[in-house]
Amino acid sequence: MKHLCFVSQASLLLFVVALLSETGCQSIYCGAMEKMGTHKRDILVERVEEGKEA
Length: 54
Known about the structure:
Layout: H1 2-35, H2 40-53
């Protein structure tokens, strides 16, 4: 029974780490694009349009 508890805790930890790294990557990407002149709202509009086409 202890083994199952460890597996679920490990899975939860992995999920949290993945979520935080994804958030960090998006922040870095948006920051870099803003320095090059593309605003965050323009990036989001483009992503929404691509999503509608898919």
